[in-house]
Amino acid sequence: MEQLVLDSRTRLLVLTGAGVSAESGVPTFRGMNGLWENHPVEAVASPEGFQADPALVWRFYSQRRTGAADVKPNPGHDALVRWEAHLGDRFLLATQNVDGLHARAGSQRVVDMHGNLFRTKCADCRREPFDDTSVHPSGTVPKCDSCGGRLRPDIVWFGEMLASADLERIGEFVSRKDGTRLVFLAAGTSGAVWPAAGLVDEVRTVGAETWLVNSESAANTERFQHFVQGLSGQVLPTLAKLV
Ligand code: OAD
Fold first, then answer.
1. How far apart are CA 72 and CA 21, in angstroms?
2. d(CA 18, ligand 1 centre) in Å
């Protein structure tokens, strides 16, 4: 297998998707061929879906909270923690996953691009999002104790913008001029959802070395210089040479 060299001249941006959590037992999105109880995920994980049937949306996320509550990080998550320890502030992890497994594994320099399954916010007022593991399987809609409005999971839904602070943090890392060379590695993502799917094009504009680790070819595989086909839990632990 080709080796990814992580030395003192390297700045590494990693993007992870649902495939990195698959070996921990968290189902991927396309693995469910995009359906949940015969609803397209886009119809449930969207402002329109919440407007139409907030109880259904809470059933969906309650199931995911229950499913994600007792899963454990896998060797792919652990490899990323080692890479971060080796590179320090020359490492940044942008994840599309909302399961919190990177934090549970010990990753600290993480951008939760799509929010966090175990955080809740109010759909109707600007109260601060708060940590929340509560589940509502019968489909009740929890109410905001500040405004009485509807609470919702603090997840970036289809059609919603990512937090500008998150995009700025990633953009700063990509455009940093500190004499290091940028390496970009995407793992376990189908390259189907933007803007995450466009990161590979953004980093190529600054001449980054690009890697994709995925169990199958992805929508944007040809945009990567290196494609290592395999399970992230098996590939990531031996892919990098820490110099
Ligand atoms: P997907 O389910 O679209 O893609 C997962 C990718 O990982 C697929 O290409 C699989 O082939 C691959 N894969 C599966 N198991 C793997 C493993 N063990 N090792 C390596 N690769 C593996 O998930 P995402 O690309 O993350 O959005 O989906 C992006 C977004 O679409 C998600 O963040 C979610 C979803 O709707 C929100 O939640 C807002």
1. 9
2. 4
One-letter amino acid at 79 equals A
Domain containing residue 13: 4-26+72-114+162-242
114 is catalytic: yes
CATH number at residue 141: 3.30.1600.10
Q: Cα-flanking dihedrals φ and ψ of residue 54, to 5°?
A: -60, -30
pLDDT at 138: 86
pLDDT in tens, 180-228: 999 999 999 999 889 999 999 999 999 999 999 999 999 999 999 999 9
Q: How far apart are CA 235 and CA 78, in angstroms?
A: 12
Q: Is 199 in the pocket of ligand 1 (CB under 6 A)?
A: no
Please give the share of the chain, as a percent, with pLDDT higher than 70. Answer: 100
